[in-house]
Amino acid sequence: MAYLVSAKEMLQKAEAGHYAVGHFNLNNMESIVAFLEAAQETHSPIILGVSGGSAKYMGGYRTIAETVLGFMNYKNINVPVALHVDHGSYEDALNAIENGFSSVMFDGSAYSIEDNLVKTKEVVKRAHAKGISVEAEVGAIGGEEDGIIAMGECADPQECKKIADLGIDFLAAGIGNIHGKYPANWAGLNFDVLDAIKKQTGDLPLVLHGGSGIPEDQIKKAISLGVSKINVNTECQVAFSEAVKKYYAEHKDEESKGYTQREIFKTGIAEMKRVCIEKMTMFGSLGKA
């Protein structure tokens, strides 16, 4: 019988082993299939992320947890899989804790540091009582996430230490990264800030959001400086979309049963899986399950 695991142990191993575990966002049933197959075939641990918007689209946290477990059993998945709330509100985090998730993120970066501390502390208390891992955030990540647009900022290392001292399991800290597609004038990651944060937080695994589109050399340098979890969403969604567009451009929907959703989305699943494996290879997690 398959089961979900906390992300704590897999990220501690990644931090100690100087690689990163990929976090891939679920947006539909097809993404569940693509990412689970990618993890199993490469023997990689994986974190499946769910934003608040995706939770609403996919039927709520309980539905998603049961669906993921159903696919894990059906496909005989035996690598470590964590099901994680991505950029959760306080309410999202508490909801997921009670509805089958094995890991949650409370994103309190929009609050004052004082309010972020109070709310994060409560999430940690409730999650840890159930063996659920917790990610917190300091410094808003740029770009757009579920309709919320942030310019992006670099986190204050001292504030990171205050959050880390609450007993969280991993920390997302803004270092110039953004969600979505990176603009041509993007300045790149701020490694001085990342290094300062690491000095303040010790062996706590750090998280890099907005992993789609960051050049490989910057990804690998971030990993060398303590990043142990990297979030990818946009590239997988674009790959799925482009594959479906190509399917129609080649008029495959006019062939036999080509108009069925199963046939249309099959090529999209394959492309998401390909991108997932590319990222896992880059992050160094192959064979680490």
Can you describe this structure?
By secondary structure, the protein is of the alpha/beta class. The protein has one domain (8-233, 269-283): Aldolase class I (TIM Barrel). It is 47% helix and 15% strand. The chain contains 11 helices and 10 strands. It has helices at residues 8-17, 29-42, 52-57, 61-74, 90-97, 113-128, 157-164, 191-201, 216-224, 234-249, 261-283, and strands at 21-25, 46-50, 81-85, 103-106, 133-138, 143-145, 148-150, 170-173, 206-208, 227-232. An 8-stranded parallel β-sheet has the order 3-2-1-10-9-8-5-4. Helix 6 (113-128) links the parallel strand 4 and strand 5. Helix 2 (29-42) packs across helix 4, helix 2 packs across helix 11 and helix 5 (90-97) packs parallel to helix 6 (113-128). It is globular and about 60 Å long. The two termini are 17 Å apart. Mean pLDDT is 91; it is low at 144-151.
Straight-line distance between termini: 17 Å
Structural class by secondary-structure content: alpha/beta
- Number of helices, where a helix is a run of at least 4 consecutive DSSP H or I residues: 11
User: What summary fits the major beta sheet?
Assistant: 8 strands, parallel
Low-confidence stretches: 144-151
For CATH, the homologous superfamily is named as Aldolase class I
Radius of gyration: 18 Å
Order of helices and strands: HEHEHHEHEHEEEHEHEHEHH
Strand content: 15-25%
Under the CATH scheme, which architecture would be assigned? Alpha-Beta Barrel
**Tally of domains:** 1
**What is the helical fraction, as a range of percent?**
40-55%
- Rounded average pLDDT: 91
Examine the coordinates and then state which fold CATH places here, giving the name of the CATH topology.
TIM Barrel
CATH class annotation: Alpha Beta
